[in-house]
Design a protein that fits this description.
250 residues; Outer Surface Protein A, domain 3; 50% helix
Length: 250
């Protein structure tokens, strides 16, 4: 079953997407079912052919851009430099009400990232996902952790990309190399810091999922894991949970 949307959202989709407008002309009943419209609402959408339609369409495009800029501003600025590329994305984008609990702009940013990667612009798509990860982390609220078993801090995210997103901007021609990074939310000033890390450190962080005690993490990671775990704990990238399993290394 499709997600029910308002007649306003259906109208916005038709006015901002050539594909949806073509569907309205060719098969209005199919469009009615897609947006769960009543017969009366469909008639309202079909009658939206006034001189104000072009103005409304431009308004919808501005809304899409505004929503995206709240999450992925650098990516939007880069895509916006190519008027043809931006127009193509907007023409195939249908804005729907975000699911409960999902902030405005997140859905559009995910669409943009997927669309860029589908167009063979993987570097831009990766950077969009990187910006989105930072935006989501900045807006989240952390739950307090206990003490004992190593766990990635609630204020931290481990991310991985096929291009080096830390090398941008500019975003065109980002180096193609597997890149691991840690995102950390800080309070003063409120921002998200990025730390590029090695694959070995990324693997160590993955082991810190709250299901292993310190000795188990060190045994699984091997090498200099104990010393690295101490540095991660000192930087507040790793915290602890539970009351058993040994103390965090220092």
């Amino acid at each position: 079953m499709g997600v029910a949307v308002s007649v306003g959202e259906a109208l916005a989709a038709v006015l901002s997407s050539e594909r949806e407008l073509a569907l309205l002309r060719a098969d209005p009943e199919r469009l009615r079912r897609r947006y769960a419209l009543t017969e009366g609402e469909l008639a309202m959408v079909m009658s939206a052919r006034s001189p104000g339609s072009e103005v409304t369409s431009r308004g919808v495009v501005r809304l899409v851009r505004s929503a995206l800029e709240a999450c992925v501003p650098v990516t939007v600025a880069e895509v916006g430099r190519d008027a043809g590329l931006w127009a193509e994305f907007v023409s195939v984008t249908v804005r729907r009400p975000p699911p409960v609990g999902v902030r405005v702009g997140v859905s559009e940013a995910r669409q943009l990232a997927a669309w860029l990667e589908g167009r063979g612009l993987g570097g831009l798509g990766c950077y969009a996902r990187y910006e989105l990860a930072k935006a989501e982390l900045l807006r989240e609220r952390s739950a307090p952790a206990g003490s004992g078993w190593p766990l990635l801090s609630p204020a931290v995210r481990l991310v991985e990309f096929e291009v080096d997103v830390t090398a941008g901007p500019p975003l065109r021609g980002l180096p193609v190399r597997r890149t691991f990074a840690v995102l950390q939310r800080v309070r003063d000033p409120a921002c998200v810091r990025t730390y590029r890390i090695s694959e070995a450190t990324a693997e160590l962080l993955r082991l810190c999922d709250g299901s292993r005690d310190v000795e188990q993490v060190v045994a699984a990671a091997g090498g200099q894991a104990r010393a690295m775990l101490a540095r991660l704990a000192a930087a507040r990238l790793v915290v602890a949970r539970g009351a058993s399993g040994g103390r965090m290394p220092r």
